[in-house]
Design brief:
With about 240 residues, this protein is α+β, with helices and mostly antiparallel strands. Helices cover about 70% and strands about 10% of the residues. The model is unreliable at about 10-30 (pLDDT under 50).
Length: about 240
């Protein structure tokens, strides 16, 4: 149960502070060894589970961990209370759930308290196991957060590269269209040059044929003249 540590009056009255410690019933001090063991157990419990302090209506309250040994019925009630809290707070049964993690951590602390009262060494060993589990979970959580950050960086880099590649694709498509236009222009020019060359060839051939016919005609005329000259008899002198 909570213990009232101190009370503070309002400033309107005289400055006065009253400190009162509520005495707890101590076991009879017939056996000093039992008293020393109880005190050592309470110290271990307070080191494992520190006292809880809070202020209410200007009064400071402190609640220590109970050092009363637990019975079988207490363990059964603890299990039922855990199941009831899981249902009330709607904790998820699978996956990552902070509510389930908190409730199971509280349940494990209570089990450590019960074991520590019966055997302090076993309780300290369970405390080491609890701290190791918490450190492992914290390491996994850090690794998970770093992997999430790494994934986000990779996603941002991929988006950035995707935008660059899209711009490059658009640029290459524009260059492709320009090259296609140039190819079309060059093809038209080649076709035009071919047509002009064909026309020039035809014109040169026609001109060549005309000149050949002209020279043949001249040759025929000269040949006929030469034959007429040669066929004419020469007069004697």
């Amino acid at each position: 149960s909570p213990i009232l540590v101190s009370t503070t009056k309002e400033k309107g009255s005289k400055k006065k502070k009253t400190a009162a410690a509520t005495p707890q019933q101590q076991p009879p001090r017939d056996d000093p060894r039992a008293t020393g063991t109880t005190t050592q157990t309470e110290d271990i419990l307070n080191s494992i589970l520190p006292p809880r302090e809070w202020t209410e209506d200007g009064q400071l309250w402190v609640q220590y961990v109970s050092s009363t040994p637990a019975t079988r019925l207490d363990v059964v009630n603890l299990q039922e209370h855990l199941d009831r809290k899981l249902q009330q707070r709607q904790a998820r049964e699978t996956g990552i759930c902070p509510i389930r993690e908190e409730l199971y951590a509280q349940c494990f602390d209570e089990l450590i308290r019960q074991v520590t009262i019966n055997c302090a060494e076993r309780g300290l060993l369970l405390l080491r196991v609890r701290d190791e589990i918490r450190m492992t979970i914290a390491a996994y959580q850090t690794l998970y957060e770093s992997s999430i950050a790494f994934g986000m960086r990779k996603a941002l880099m991929a988006e950035h590269r995707k935008a660059e590649m899209q711009n490059k694709v658009k640029q290459l498509e524009a260059e492709q269209q320009d090259l296609k236009r140039q190819v079309g222009d060059l093809t038209d020019r080649c076709n035009l040059i071919k047509e002009r060359e064909e026309e020039r060839k035809k014109a040169d051939k026609a001109k060549h044929d005309e000149e050949v016919a002209k020279y043949k005609k001249i040759n025929d005329q000269l040949k006929s003249q030469l034959e007429s000259i040669l066929s004419t008899p020469q007069r004697s002198s």
